[in-house]
Amino acid sequence: MRTNHFPDNRTAFPHNVTLDCNLNRSVMLSGKRIADVGYKLFSGSMMLLTLYGGYLCVLRAQRFMQRQKQLEAQNESTASETIKD
């Protein structure tokens, strides 16, 4: 006759299968969590990169507009000087 060494009359096989299933679930959940965190970090970095690119674009447009105003003012001053002469 086979004796059971577990105190609450459980056999070893179903207990191990349950443990293995739970272990696989926890590994899969942590893998999914890692993937989710990686995706969120990547998405966040792309969002920040987009914002930074927009900021640089606005700065360049602002410099362009200032330069255009300077050139127009310079042309007006030289045009008024030529008219006086």
From TrEMBL:
Record's GO cellular component terms: mitochondrial membrane
Annotated localization: Mitochondrion membrane
Keyword annotations from UniProtKB, A to Z: Membrane, Mitochondrion, Transmembrane, Transmembrane helix
Transmembrane segments: 37-59
Xref: InterPro entries: COX14
A Pfam family annotated for this UniProt entry: COX14
Superkingdom of origin organism: Eukaryota
Keyword Lipid biosynthesis assigned: no
Membrane topology: Single-pass membrane protein
Name this protein carries in UniProt: Cytochrome c oxidase assembly protein COX14 homolog isoform X1
Organism: Carassius auratus (Goldfish)
